[in-house]
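Following up on my earlier message about adenosine-5'-tetraphosphate. Here are the inputs again, as you asked, copied directly from the submission form:
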Amino acid sequence: MTAFEPRVFSGVQPTGNLHLGNYLGAITRFVALQDEYPCVYCVVDMHAITVWQEPTELTNAIRSVTAAFIAAGIDPDKHVIFNQSQVHQHAELAWVFNCVARMGWLNRMTQFKEKAGKDKENASVGLFAYPTLMAADILAYKATHVPVGEDQKQHLELTRNIAQKFNHDFAGRIAELGHGEEYFPVTEPIIQGPATRVMSLRDGSKKMSKSDASDYSRINLTDDRDTIATKIRKAKTDPEPLPSEAKGLEGRAEADNLVGIYAALSEKSRDAVLAEFGGAPFATFKPALAELAVEKLAPMNGEMRRLLADPGHLDAVLARGADQAAEIAAPVIDGVRDIVGFVSSRRS
Ligand code: AQP
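Thanks, got it. Here's what our run produced:
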């Protein structure tokens, strides 16, 4: 087995307002991992355009995700923050992976089915091929660990399958060219914490999502104190008081979601939260949750606003990050060209 240098990669789409699900499921994990690993965090704007984006809103959303990364605590002086479209190696590797992945694998992807809905014929080809671009994002950096929310588990499994098939199909060339037994690592997903799948505040069976038509379904990182309190007050619940143990949340999706959010924000377990609130009605729990959410999100909200007031600075962070990212990805893609057998007069 080839030993790979550990590296973390993950991405967030600039498809609208970032929400509490993105924050708890992904961004807080990104922050935690930066003390342990070299990290590459990407604003995946090429993924965003797999569904229609207004160009000026896309530009603003790219800066907004960049600001959220920095405001949450990712240090751009120690780790790489950039946007995908500035590093051409992502698109190039994605094409090779389109030729490695099988139609049957992609046909099984539930995210495409959910996002394309009933009108599959009218979905973009990019939306169908989304997971091969995601595999390219990760493997262009030979990333060994990828922190994501639960919804990305299937795409991560596909990335592993693509890495294994590439390593297998080209095993002879990989060895011959001196790359050892495997060219790409079989990446480990990191899906951890009490909030790997934060659900909609309006429907406990649907995940919280940027593209949900109802703004009341999510808490945006840019929401002010009053908006956060109103959204939590209006969140769907059932009439029963809270149970005193996590087991009692079974079959109570909305209650489970709110307790999970409280647990994640307070860095406690669900059981610890219920030891405090067991027996309490939602009329007591919801204001406590709103207060906690405001307390945790307000500093980040303020910092995001400060950063967004200077778009030139954010663009400079992205430009420097793109140079650093390309420095890592370029030799990886040069290696792929050689392995595949392309004749190449130009190096990356
Ligand atoms: N509800 C969620 N709970 C926990 N984690 C979540 N993530 C997304 N929603 C939740 C995680 O956030 C990271 C970035 O996600 P993304 O923006 O790249 O795309 P997505 O998963 O498709 O998120 P959205 O909000 O639902 O966006 P739209 O509506 O544009 O598709 C990922 O790690 C994801 O798992």
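One observation from looking it over: The beta strands are 8-12, 39-43, 80-83, 145-147, 188-190. Hope that helps, and feel free to reply on this thread.
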